[in-house]
Specification:
Helices cover 78% and strands 0% of the residues.
Length: 199
């Protein structure tokens, strides 16, 4: 019996498969984007309760203290691993009916809106331009991760649950490694450089 020759691994093919899977998952990603944008607008236009505002400001202060005195390389590492954890857990914990990615989108959206409105009050609307360069790469990475997390949690409604769970996990992991990871690396480099320049 002649053994079938295994096809050589092709990064280009795997990369194409990743983008195909993103296209298949676009409705889940759009849902995440929708939650994010709605709560970003709420965070920007609706004044936060004093207790919540104080908690957010404490978190921001802690973050500033943590990153104080870091070199550009250390900042890149810090930002990258923070975003990596957020994105990966957002995808992985989507296993529970997709609840965590939705909560993540709501929280991140609200925080962005809150920080943006605080920044414009203390400086000017142009301060938002600082957020955009790394956001161009970071936000799509987060949206894709959370969207895949949301899709991941939908396996429970499928007939062949175990098969769907496995397929969704491996497809999502491929996307995470080949698409999300590079976007997060680029975002971390840009954000750390901007912080170093402005600091």
């Amino acid at each position: 019996m002649v053994k079938k020759k295994e096809k050589p691994f092709s990064l280009k093919k795997q990369y194409r498969k990743s983008w195909d899977y993103i296209k298949e998952s676009k409705n889940f990603i759009y849902i995440i984007v929708g939650f994010f944008l709605i709560f970003a607008l709420i965070g920007f236009f609706v004044p936060a309760p004093e207790a919540l505002s104080e908690q957010i400001m404490k978190l921001i202060q802690q973050l500033l203290e943590q990153t104080k005195g870091m070199s550009n390389g250390e900042l890149i590492k810090f930002i990258f691993f923070n975003n990596l954890k957020s994105s990966f857990f957002g995808f992985l914990f989507g296993l529970v009916l997709g609840i965590f990615p939705v909560i993540g989108a709501i929280t991140n959206g609200y925080l962005l809106g809150f920080v943006a409105t605080m920044a414009t009050q203390t400086e000017s609307i142009w301060v938002l331009a600082r957020i955009l360069p790394h956001g161009i790469f970071e936000l799509p990475a987060v949206f894709i991760s959370f969207g895949l997390g949301l899709r991941f949690g939908m396996f429970i409604f499928k007939k062949n649950k175990i098969k769907t769970l496995k397929e969704t996990f491996w497809n999502s992991l491929r996307v995470f490694l080949l698409v999300v990871l590079p976007l997060l690396i680029i975002a971390a480099i840009i954000e750390a450089t901007l912080i170093s320049i402005s600091g």
